[in-house]
Design a protein that fits this description.
The complex is a heterodimer. Chain A is α+β, with helices and mostly antiparallel strands. Chain A has 26 helices and 18 strands. Chain A has a 6-stranded mixed sheet with strand order 2-1-6-3-4-5. Chain A has a 4-stranded mixed sheet with strand order 8-7-12-9, sandwiched between helices. The relative contact order of chain A is 0.11. Chain B is an alpha+beta fold. Chain B has one domain: Alpha-Beta Plaits (2-Layer Sandwich), CATH 3.30.70.20. Chain B has a two-stranded antiparallel ribbon. In chain B, strand 3 and strand 4 form a beta hairpin. Classes of the chains: A alpha+beta, B alpha+beta. At the A-B interface, helix 4, strand 13, helix 7 and strand 14 of A face helix 1 and strand 2 of B.
């Protein structure tokens, strides 16, 4: 078998046993790797009647994309859980890093954790040697400490470590695992690992990857690499990272400030990426095999916020900057390192804290609800203290928030005898997952729909990030999308960002596309998702050279459709329906108040109609559940049988109620 | 004669060099069989690629008991005559950089051969942490890089007031 490592590791924690299961080629071909593997493994292995995310019956699957360790531009690993403490349904997080390649070089395509270890353990993998080891000495250690200790113990600085921090150990809902400063953000997979007493995984692989058609791969390297470097956004991302989006969004009136209430914040230039690079950036760093190197390695040399670390993405500079009504860059970098070390998700935590500021502003909470902490806009020291209390579940407030922002909202609602919706409507969230720093009113209707229908809750990474990439006159100017598809989008008039009609085709295409990139391990920043040139055709070229197979881009897309339907069926099994596919309520009710895009708002009627069109296009029913023939066409008869048995499936034709 | 000039300040730690080196030499992807190696201290943001410098006076050649190491007159690269190599690894011991590598599978010693004058690691190194330039120019480049740090300062000092 070329390309894939050939084995799935199944760690049965309760019995302290790890089994190596040979990977079936048929399974590999259909689900590719990474997210595709995880979603199917979890669908098949989990009993949805288990509702507690921290039950030993929950499952965690960690899989590198199938191109990890095989090609350039592929370093991403998917971490998935059957029940997320953030969304209470299936969820996952992706991290680009070095771990994925190393795991493949050791010969493995997936690690699945079942049960619960008696005490804190870590999984150690050195080629054929795989064992669960005592991790009690790592209890309470930060992610960076854990990384250093395990490399020292293994006696190999080139070993790769994924670890949870104190927040994961304390089962905080927004906890995540990281490889040092590269985070598997979203969906709180860290707390689930913590509930299973898994502190870390350390891997060293020296077997490498055998390549089916090495000469084809050499050619593909030359061609695709060149295309990547000539991409229109390459200079911006490789020089200033995603932090540059803040500058760009501010100048185009798209920057959310004060928890999406406004477009402006005084002194915003202080958190520009140019400022970051000049004042604190030491150099740019990259994930394995990546020429985009979009992360800053930063150092704040002195003062109360002295720190060092890497990343500093737009999500942190905006989430703890303009969205928090503040512009103190050194404090933001301090927070970034702190969150990474504690093992907390930047997007969830920033949203939770900024929503509290918003409640505070409107007089819905005060010091009596927060153990004396103040939640003013632009304040940093209380934020840092709140983050610590959250990670360690300190006090009544810290413990309540650690349960989830909804748990906290409920406790406040009960206390004040107000309906909980009065509080939760402030949250920019879908399916329980709070949103990254885009705005569904401004990034195009495709992006709004895509955030809504995302299989893991509000998400810019699950499909369309922004419709802006289609704003072209000629199909050849739309990067990363097969020419005929791009032409069809233009023919449908989709270059108009604010058009509703026809956007279902674009969204479905990009959702499948992202399912493919997440399963191959290709970074989205190299693809059409970011208006860049590593498209499905190039991915197929890579995959064929590596595995010796003959995928066309259409075959790849079908794999994406299959994976998306597995996830959709899984969420249907948990009870998610049409009502869960709508963008945040505020985007339908509050027009953008200022700036060049003043007045922008979503139209509920039009959105509802678009949603129906999308379901029809997908071959799902009016509640968004895949139809029997849709599943059969994708070779998912087993899932169709399961949904039927549970009386969830419909056999009627698409578009009927 | 050209050499692979390394500028660690530009290295992003991506290891593209290791990936392409093993692919173009071994037809597989395996950093443990790469002729170039990136030493990383990720906690401190430091990455230093280590690769044979094709020394003027190579200790590897001198120490080799079977005279298996010789200079390619075309490229100036120090090459290993595999038939003569007995795998004693003395070349690695003698090299101040530890630049030659022991293959993880066969135990054979391998080293950078400059890809017959077109080093693939350099071709794919986008940040230009690796450059293939004449040895004499490398020294100048090093001086320039060092001088750049003072450039800004000097500009400020020399700038007319106001």
């Amino acid at each position: 078998m070329y390309g894939w490592g050939g084995y799935i590791l199944k760690a049965y924690l309760t019995d302290a046993k790890v089994i190596k299961d040979p990977l079936s080629l048929e399974f590999a071909r259909a689900f590719l790797g990474g997210r595709g593997f995880n979603s199917k493994i979890i669908y098949d292995g989990f009993d949805p009647s288990v509702t507690d995310p921290f039950s030993p019956k929950n499952i965690v699957a960690i899989s590198p994309g199938s191109l990890c360790g095989n090609t350039l531009s592929a370093s991403r690993i998917c971490v998935s859980v059957a029940r997320s403490p953030v969304t209470r349904v299936f969820g996952d997080g992706n991290l680009g890093s070095y771990f994925g390649g190393e795991l493949k070089w050791a010969g493995y395509d997936s690690i699945v954790f079942y049960g619960k270890a008696k005490d804190l353990v870590y999984l150690r993998i050195e080629d054929d040697r795989v064992e669960l080891r005592d991790a009690r000495h790592l209890k309470g250690k930060m992610v960076s400490e854990t990384d250093a200790i395990l490399k020292e113990e293994l006696g190999d600085p080139d070993a790769r470590v994924i670890a949870i921090g104190p927040a994961g150990e304390n089962q905080v809902a927004s906890a995540i695992p990281l490889e040092l400063h590269r985070a598997a953000g979203a969906c709180g997979t860290g707390g689930v690992l913590g509930s299973k007493n898994v502190k870390a995984i350390v891997v060293r692989g020296t077997r490498g990857s055998k390549i089916a058609r090495p000469n084809d791969l050499k050619e593909a390297f030359k061609k695709v690499h060149k295309k990547l470097l000539s991409g229109p956004h390459y200079p911006m991302f490789s020089t200033y990272g995603s932090a540059s989006l803040l500058d760009l969004f501010n100048e185009s009136g798209m920057l959310p400030t004060y928890n999406w209430q406004d477009r402006e914040v005084e002194g915003v230039e202080k958190v520009y990426s140019t400022e970051l690079k000049e004042k604190y950036g030491l150099k740019m760093v990259a994930c394995l095999g990546c020429a985009v190197h979009c992360e800053h390695y930063y150092v704040v040399k002195e003062g109360p916020y002295a720190t060092k670390g890497a990343g500093a993405e737009y999500e942190v500079t905006c989430g703890f900057g303009p969205r928090a009504g503040g512009v103190k860059l050194d404090a933001i970098l301090y927070i970034n390192t702190l969150l990474n070390d504690l093992g907390l998700d930047v997007v969830q935590v920033s949203n939770w804290i900024n929503t509290m500021r918003h409640w505070w502003q409107d007089g819905l909470i005060d010091e009596s609800d927060t153990d004396g902490l103040v939640f003013e806009w632009g304040d940093y020291d209380s934020t840092i203290e709140a983050i610590r209390r959250l990670a360690y579940r300190k006090g009544k407030f810290g413990n309540s928030l650690a349960g989830n922002i909804f748990t906290f909202a409920r406790s406040i609602a009960d206390k004040k005898k107000i309906p909980v919706e009065k509080l939760t409507r402030y949250l920019i969230q879908i399916k329980g997952m709070t949103q990254s720093s885009g705005d569904n009113r401004l990034m195009g209707i495709g992006a709004a729909l895509s955030h809504g229908t995302s299989t893991r809750g509000s998400d810019h990474l699950r499909g369309v990030n922004t419709d802006i990439w289609l704003q072209q006159e000629k199909a050849e100017d739309i990067w990363g999308i097969p020419r005929e598809v791009a032409q069809r989008f233009l023919d449908l008039g989709l270059s108009d960002m604010n058009r509703y009609e026809g956007k279902e085709e674009y969204v479905a295409f990009m959702e499948d596309y992202c399912a493919v990139t997440d399963s191959l391990g290709i970074c989205k920043r190299h693809t059409a998702w970011e208006g860049m040139g590593l498209g499905l055709e190039e991915m197929a070229e890579y995959l064929n050279a590596v595995t010796g197979m003959n995928y066309t881009w259409k075959d790849l897309r079908k794999c994406g459709t299959r994976i998306y339907n597995v996830e959709r069926a899984m969420q249907a099994r948990y009870g998610l329906r049409r009502k869960d596919d709508f963008p945040p309520v505020r985007f339908f009710e509050e027009p953008v108040p200022s700036g060049p895009l003043k007045g922008a708002i979503l139209d509920r009627k039009k959105f509802d109609k678009l949603l129906s069109a999308y379901y029809r296009h997908r071959g799902w029913n009016e509640e968004g559940i895949p139809l029997e023939e849709t599943l059969k066409d994708l070779g998912l008869e087993d899932i169709s049988r399961d949904l039927k048995k549970r009386k969830i499936i419909q056999t009627k034709k698409a578009g009927t109620r | 004669m050209k050499i692979i000039y390394v500028d660690p300040q530009k290295c992003t730690g991506c290891k593209v060099c290791e990936i392409v080196c093993s692919l173009f030499h071994e037809n597989e992807i395996n950093p443990t069989k790469s002729r170039i190696y990136v030493t990383s201290w990720e906690h401190d943001g430091i990455d230093i690629p280590i690769v044979c410098q094709q020394c003027e006076d190579p200790p590897c050649e001198e120490v080799c008991p079977t005279h298996a190491i010789f200079r390619d007159v075309q490229t100036g690269a120090m090459l290993i005559n595999e038939a003569a190599c007995i795998g004693c690894r003395m070349c690695i011991n003698a090299c101040p950089f530890g630049a030659p590598t022991v293959r993880s599978d066969t135990g054979e010693v391998i080293k950078c051969d400059l890809c017959e004058g077109e080093p693939k690691c350099v071709e794919f190194c986008e940040p230009k942490a690796l450059q293939y330039i004449p040895a004499s120019k490398a020294a100048i480049l090093k001086k320039r890089t060092a001088a750049e740090k003072y450039e800004e300062l000097m500009k400020k000092v020399l700038a007319p007031a106001g």
